[in-house]
């Protein structure tokens, strides 16, 4: 792309660095912003800077939050004996949208993936074990993607958790293998949480 302006080129390159945004789309977005009022562009830019500077991660479940402890962990209406283990904040949003789950979450911040150099130590696993040791947890639900990485992570976690006095369940597989849970429709996802199965039952099959 030949740009008539270095400023334009810089902005297009920044947008083009975002996932799923090609150069053409980046150019369209930047030209759109140029047509907006200065106030609108200031609001847009400052929302990103404010987000980056002020966002917190819940000290208990690691979900993205405006507070040190997120609203879910802080709620007396939630069942604190139930922890749903997910990959990232998008999964929390997807499960919350089903209105079928009233427990807490634990966000791992990824999945074990030797191919990508992600090992157990890179994930929020120790803090999950601490929560189970220190709180009245009765059940852990693995709500991880039905992928190789998801299965590897569940297998690892199960080994770490199986000696605790806990029920360990996994989503009923209405979600096809390779399915990312954030993309599952709300009804399917809601059903697979309410009809979750003991993890042990999914082994030896
Ligand atoms: Zn939390």
TrEMBL record:
<dbReference type="Pfam" id="PF21176">
    <property type="entry name" value="RecR_HhH"/>
</dbReference>
<dbReference type="GO" id="GO:0003677">
    <property type="term" value="F:DNA binding"/>
</dbReference>
<keyword id="KW-0863">Zinc-finger</keyword>
<keyword id="KW-0234">DNA repair</keyword>
<keyword id="KW-0227">DNA damage</keyword>
<dbReference type="InterPro" id="IPR034137">
    <property type="entry name" value="TOPRIM_RecR"/>
</dbReference>
<protein>
    <recommendedName>
        <fullName>Recombination protein RecR</fullName>
    </recommendedName>
</protein>
<comment type="function">
    <text>May play a role in DNA repair. It seems to be involved in an RecBC-independent recombinational process of DNA repair. It may act with RecF and RecO.</text>
</comment>
<dbReference type="InterPro" id="IPR006171">
    <property type="entry name" value="TOPRIM_dom"/>
</dbReference>
<dbReference type="GO" id="GO:0006281">
    <property type="term" value="P:DNA repair"/>
</dbReference>
<feature type="domain" description="Toprim">
    <location>
        <begin position="81"/>
        <end position="176"/>
    </location>
</feature>
<keyword id="KW-0862">Zinc</keyword>
<keyword id="KW-0479">Metal-binding</keyword>
<dbReference type="GO" id="GO:0006310">
    <property type="term" value="P:DNA recombination"/>
</dbReference>
<dbReference type="Pfam" id="PF21175">
    <property type="entry name" value="RecR_C"/>
</dbReference>
<dbReference type="InterPro" id="IPR023627">
    <property type="entry name" value="Rcmb_RecR"/>
</dbReference>
<dbReference type="GO" id="GO:0008270">
    <property type="term" value="F:zinc ion binding"/>
</dbReference>
<comment type="similarity">
    <text>Belongs to the RecR family.</text>
</comment>
<dbReference type="InterPro" id="IPR000093">
    <property type="entry name" value="DNA_Rcmb_RecR"/>
</dbReference>
<dbReference type="Pfam" id="PF02132">
    <property type="entry name" value="RecR_ZnF"/>
</dbReference>
<dbReference type="Pfam" id="PF13662">
    <property type="entry name" value="Toprim_4"/>
</dbReference>
<keyword id="KW-0233">DNA recombination</keyword>
<feature type="zinc finger region" description="C4-type">
    <location>
        <begin position="58"/>
        <end position="73"/>
    </location>
</feature>
<dbReference type="InterPro" id="IPR015967">
    <property type="entry name" value="Rcmb_RecR_Znf"/>
</dbReference>
């Amino acid at each position: 792309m030949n740009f008539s302006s270095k400023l334009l080129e810089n902005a297009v390159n920044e947008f083009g660095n975002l996932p799923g945004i090609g150069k053409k789309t980046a150019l369209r977005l930047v030209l759109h912003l140029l047509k907006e009022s200065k106030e609108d562009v200031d609001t847009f830019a400052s929302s990103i800077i404010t987000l980056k500077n002020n966002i917190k991660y819940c000290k208990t479940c690691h979900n993205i939050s405006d507070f040190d402890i997120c609203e879910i962990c802080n709620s007396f209406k939630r069942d604190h004996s139930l922890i749903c283990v997910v990959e990232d904040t998008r999964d929390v949003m997807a499960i919350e949208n089903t209105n079928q789950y009233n427990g807490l979450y634990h966000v791992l911040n990824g999945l074990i993936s030797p191919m990508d150099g992600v090992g157990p130590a890179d994930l929020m696993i120790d803090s999950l074990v601490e929560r189970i040791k220190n709180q009245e947890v009765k059940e852990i639900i693995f709500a991880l993607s039905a992928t190789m990485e998801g299965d590897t992570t569940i297998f690892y976690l199960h080994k770490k958790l199986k000696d605790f006095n806990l029920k360990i369940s996994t989503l009923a597989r209405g979600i096809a293998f390779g399915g990312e849970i954030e993309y599952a429709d709300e009804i399917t996802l809601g059903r697979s949480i309410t009809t979750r199965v003991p993890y042990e039952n999914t082994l030896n099959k």
